[in-house]
Amino acid sequence: MTPAARLSAAIDVLGAIEAERIPAQNALKSWGTAHRFAGSGDRAAIAGLVFDALRRHASSAYLMDDDSARARLLGALKLERGLDVEAIASLCNGERFAPVPLSDAERNALATRTLADAPSDIAGDYPTWLDPHFAEAFGDDRVKEAAAMASRAPLDLRVNTLRAKREKAQAALSHLGATPTPWSPLGLRIVLGADARNPGVHAEEIFLKGGVEVQDEGSQLAALFTQAKPGEQVVDLCAGAGGKTLALAAMMQGKGRLLATDRDKRQLAPIHQRLSRAGVHNAEIRSPRGAEDVLADASGKADLVVVDAPCTGTGTWRRNPDAKWRMRPGALEIRLKDQVEVLTRAASLVKPGGRLAYITCSVLPQENSGQIEAFLAREPGFTVMPPAEVIAALGERAAAFREAVRLSPQGLLMTPLRTGTDGFFVSLLRKAG
Ligand SMILES: C[S@@+](CC[C@H](N)C(=O)[O-])C[C@H]1O[C@@H](n2cnc3c(N)ncnc32)[C@H](O)[C@@H]1O
């Protein structure tokens, strides 16, 4: 397919997403099924265009003064890819399979309109109803923060120290351009191209042998900040597919006991294979069994309880650019209730003198500082550990990280703008001894 034909296809897919209100991946899959002649390069390029338009969903429509799928795609070519009006006109050349030529209004919009007077939610590409939350989180920086949350994310890997060293893993992935991440001592980063094409890490020998796992650097740091140590009894209460569990296990170096559970046993399904590939032998998966308390034996005994809380996921928008447009206020209310429930359970598992790590991949204050404030009022036996003590896990990078991260009395917030990671909030609390 020519670049112009790919653009046409992307406009069709975006139109279907909007008309049928379906997730982007489903629309792309349907398009692929109906156009079997398209190769993997075409599909990846079309997906890249669709995701870029979703990243710039509001700002591109504003720029073009038109909210059609075509306008959003054209606007995104300018805003996200930096194409000028002539480059865009050359794609819309009216030839077979290409989009029809630019109208005068489109030419004019691409050449002259800007986002200078756009409201914050439009310039920052986030749902209007979230503006008060973003204002509370970021104040006048909210457009810059939100724009970074809308931008493309790299592919981050965590080196599994049970199986490999970072230098060795980097060498094994040099053909993919892997470089060390700025903060995590275990991170490797692969910068993805505009077509968002998956570089096939899952098929690499170092991955198959458990030497690396896919994990955003922010998630790696969140695990590091829990200070899990060899010999401890650790509970991962919201283990899901096991991203944090694997990181905690590596920190524990196979010593001590790691109990992993989740409210939803289906979420735990991939964890067994991941643990075995990673060479973890001290983790026990406690799948939920109806009303039974599967952690009854751990009550009041854990050195560390990790709550990787269910949340709105606003911190991961750069990886799911369509999720934010489908998010509704009701989703926040539900998550807030889940968080209270899981924090209450966590508190009862921590032993006197032990730690509770509360983590979200959200930037919304209600889910982060607000939730910790309310927890401390309910559980006066807990105190927040000072951020300097938490960040010290980064060694010589701690001072620079402290400058970059957003600190509050309740914890720290990483963001794509400030730390180049997904958005993650971490609060480490200690229970009185
Ligand atoms: C952010 S995800 C966990 C991600 C996982 N820790 C990782 O690093 O890959 C949150 C998880 O919390 C689980 N969850 C929701 N409510 C819960 C509750 N009340 N108790 C325990 N787990 C809960 C969800 O099923 C979901 O798997």
From TrEMBL:
Residues 145-432 form the SAM-dependent MTase RsmB/NOP-type domain. Belongs to the class I-like SAM-binding methyltransferase superfamily. RsmB/NOP family. The keyword GTP-binding does not apply. GO terms for molecular function: RNA binding; RNA methyltransferase activity. The keyword Methyltransferase applies. One of its GO terms (biological process) is RNA methylation. SUPFAM superfamilies: S-adenosyl-L-methionine-dependent methyltransferases (SSF53335). The active site is at residue 361. PANTHER family: NOP2 YEAST -RELATED NOL1/NOP2/FMU SUN DOMAIN-CONTAINING, RIBOSOMAL RNA SMALL SUBUNIT METHYLTRANSFERASE B-RELATED. This is tRNA/rRNA cytosine-C5-methylase. InterPro entries: MeTrfase_RsmB-F_NOP2_cat (IPR049560), MeTrfase_RsmB-F_NOP2_dom (IPR001678), RCMT (IPR023267), RsmB-like_ferredoxin (IPR054728), SAM-dependent_MTases_sf (IPR029063). S-adenosyl-L-methionine binds at residues 262, 308. Keywords: Methyltransferase, RNA-binding, S-adenosyl-L-methionine, Transferase.
